[in-house]
Design brief:
Distance between the termini: 34 Å
Structural class: alpha/beta
Strand order of the largest sheet: 13-14-12-11-10-9-8-15
Order of helices and strands: EEEHEHEHEHEHHHEHHEEEHEHEEE
Number of domains: 2
CATH architecture of the largest domain: 3-Layer(aba) Sandwich
Strand content: 25-35%
CATH superfamily of the largest domain: Gcn5-related N-acetyltransferase (GNAT)
CATH topology of the largest domain: Aminopeptidase
CATH class of the largest domain: Alpha Beta
Radius of gyration: 22 Å
Largest sheet: 8 strands, mixed
Shape: elongated
């Protein structure tokens, strides 16, 4: 699978600006950098900082250049750049292999590469080619991509609220007033659906990617159902965060989940099983048996456990593919802390 960069982490001195801030406050913004940051942001690529500097001073300088709002979870201190990148990845809940790091110093790039070999390290001298790299060029720029930074900022507010909340976890989740809408994918959903298959690794049942054209064909197919899930709460929208592909074999009276995925951004929100429960419920209402395909990767064991906790058991293996069958009885209702609105899926 081609590398997809989800976040670019920047050094500051001699990278975002020319000069060393602690030595000379008259640093100047690197030529063209504002346009590059704006272009990456518009593509849905998140931005952060790993800089050895004094935090307040550096942020004041970024504000003076009107760039501070671009950067999420900036790590400005005297720790190693590799530890800063690990913190950013953890806060954003993305894989290390989805991060690029730009720095002018070979020592800093080498330090990161030695500790985190999956990070794409880039010499600032190659900045002119950054926007032309395949890893920085999503095929589509969806509404979710354009709003990704703002959605991530909303998530920062959620984390702050959660950290200060006194009470059980479920009580906090109820305070979010979450609502999930599940519906068949329409034309307007297909670009984001392709993006989800490319970007989602941890909560992806097969690791399979689909192109826009393949998804369009499946959405039109009478023997398939392509479902999309959207999530909102009182802080705003999470966007389209779930996708499921179901193959219907009416004569055999069985539905098979060929793909199930949820965005990593909702992992901590207790809604990972809601879409699966919806599918189980619809299969039972239609009088269908339900099975699912699972292909283990180095990242998706959590999705396997989602199936197991939902009542699926292993029925066999073919090559690297695991066949799961639903062996449960009564499907539990959605968690009380999330409202679910679902359009009916015809059999």
């Amino acid at each position: 699978m081609a590398r997809t960069i989800k976040c670019v982490v920047w050094d500051l001195d001699h990278t975002i600006w020319s000069g060393v801030l602690l030595e000379d406050e008259r640093v100047t913004l690197r030529s063209g950098i504002a346009d590059i940051l704006e272009a990456l942001d518009r593509r849905g690529i998140l931005l952060s900082i790993a800089s050895k500097n004094e935090y307040t001073h550096a942020m004041d300088m970024l504000r003076s250049f009107r760039l501070d709002d671009y950067f999420l979870y900036p790590q400005i201190h005297w720790n190693t750049k590799s530890s800063s990148i690990q913190t950013i990845a953890r806060e954003m809940n993305i894989g290390i292999d989805a991060i690029a790091f730009i720095d002018d110093q070979p020592f800093e790039r080498d330090e990161v590469a030695s500790v985190l070999p999956d990070v794409l390290c880039i010499d600032v001298r190659h900045l002119d080619s950054l926007l032309h790299m395949d890893a920085m060029k999503p095929r589509f720029i969806t509404d979710d991509a354009r709003n990704r930074r703002q959605m991530m900022k909303a998530d920062q507010h959620r984390k702050t609220a959660e950290a200060s909340f006194e009470g059980p976890q479920e009580q906090f989740l109820a305070s979010l007033e979450m609502k999930m809408v599940i519906h068949p994918a329409g034309e307007a959903d297909l670009q984001r659906a392709e993006e989800l298959t490319v970007r989602t690794n941890q909560l992806n049942s097969t690791g399979t990617t689909f192109t826009y054209d393949e998804l369009a064909d499946l959405a039109r197919s009478p023997s398939h159902v392509l479902l999309v899930a959207q999530l909102t709460d009182r802080y705003g929208t999470y966007g389209k965060i779930g996708l499921a592909l179901i193959e219907k074999k009416e004569r055999e009276r069985i539905w098979t989940i060929r793909l199930l995925l949820m965005s990593c951004r909702v992992m901590s929100r207790g809604v990972g099983s809601v879409m699966l429960q919806h599918i189980i419920r619809r299969a039972q209402q239609a009088g269908m048996k339900l099975s699912a395909e699972f292909i283990p990767t180095d990242r998706n064991r959590m999705m396997y456990m989602t199936y197991k906790f939902a009542g699926f058991t292993e029925a066999g293996k073919t090559g690297g593919k695991v066949l799961l069958v639903y062996a449960g009885d009564e499907v539990p209702p959605p968690p009380a802390y999330v409202e679910v609105e679902a359009l009916e899926v015809s059999s």
